[in-house]
Amino acid sequence: MRPLRGLISTDIQSRQLSLQWENLAFNLTRCHTYSVSLCYRYTMAGGGGGHNTTVRECLAVEHNASRFTLRDLPPYHSVHVRLSLANPEGKKESREVTFQTEEDIPGGIAPESLTFTPLDDMIFLKWEEPVEPNGLITQYEVSPWGHFC
Predict the structure, then answer these.
(1) What is the pTM of this model?
(2) For this UniProt entry, which residues form the secretion signal (predicted)?
């Protein structure tokens, strides 16, 4: 038995990752009784200067499957993935492969972070980045909520 090979992404979106790997055959599993697990991890930044949290999970893959879609992932994050093949004789793990989910629409700006200072000919606005930027913020757009006279 050897580790599974050929782990690639077939589709990357902001909150899901579709993966594929080599087909399973008896010459690879060396046994009719085997299991495949897909293990992944990613790190979430702690809010307000808190500690980072690493999310880890291993999921059982259907027998004879050579593809799987991870769902409910955070946007714009590195996701580290490996496959584990086990039979009654032991377990082999593939090398870890890193994928990055796509960007998504940013979360809202906390209203309490918005401050404004009226000046003679303008209003100075200041705000904090959204708690969930979901990517690199390259532009903000400010539009009035009501009519100003």
Answers:
(1) 0.80
(2) none
